[in-house]
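Notes on consecutive records. When two proteins share a document, each keeps its own sequence and its own token line. Never mix them. Below: protein one.
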Amino acid sequence: MSALTRHHVSVTGRHDAPPLVLVHGFGCDQHMWRYVAPAFEDSHRVVLMDLIGAGGGDLSGYDSERYSELEGYAADITAVVRELDLHGAVLVGHSVSAMLVAMTQLEEPERVAGLVMVAPSPRYIDEPGYTGGFGEEDVDELLDSLAGNYLGWSSAMAPAIMGNSERPELGEELTESFCRMDPAVARRFATATFRSDSRDLLPRIGVPTLVLQCTDDVIAPVAVGEYVAEQVPDGRLVMLEATGHCPNLSAPEATTRAIASFLDDLDVVPA
């Protein structure tokens, strides 16, 4: 099966324009970009995909060992980039996918011209000299709760992750998205995500990188966004006056403006 079929890849916009690849985070799917992607269809070749187990992503080839580490998911993004033969691409990764697109850039430096990291975190667990936002025990409890009752965990966690309690429909949408995932797949992806440590990748990123950080995010606090932007050699931080971990849904206009400004500065010409 081709990577394009396996990951339910959708390509819109101008096929002679620079590619813009949008990758969703844990528990989401490409539908989460519906307020952002259309803004770039006049100027870019817009590529959307579903990670395995999400949305239209095909689970028939799922391998529990491969997807016990984030590198398995990153390899899928790389496969899509290669199959489409993209050059001069800007990869946009939300949440954990911010680290996945970084891995793809390091694997295919000649194909990737820039990165956008939306609410990224290279390490969720606090350590001396580093603030990740969670203690070790917090992560243990989170993963135990997910393993014990995934639907209940989703109903409790999704609204907290989304924030914006005055707009409950956003939390409800994320809850429904979480609940569509196979619990075993979700548990393995969550474990790979929350126990990961990708900080060593950041100084190796070789392209301009935009870090979009929400001012109030329970998953990735401001200190994490600042850290990521400082560690990437050509990193730039833009603070979004937004609440929650999913500004592509809760603050799509601000998210779109920030990405558009970054793309204008890059001025990428397709190969």
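Protein two starts on the next line and is unrelated to protein one.
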Amino acid sequence: MTEKTAKGPASYFPSIEKKYGRPVAEWQELIRSSPLTKHMELVGWLKSEHGLGHGHANALVAATLAEGR
């Protein structure tokens, strides 16, 4: 049986959870509760306040905003 491979921002999720020790749902809730609204503001905030790398922060923000926060 072939396992379906995640595409787009979701392809980063397993490595995000492994590297930072928090589930993606928790990161997304942080993003949703932030007063920031612009994509790059949120990316910068995740990088500076939570120590995420650019690619991981970008993937989380893109996926969360695509869901409608």
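For the record: The radius of gyration is 12 Å.
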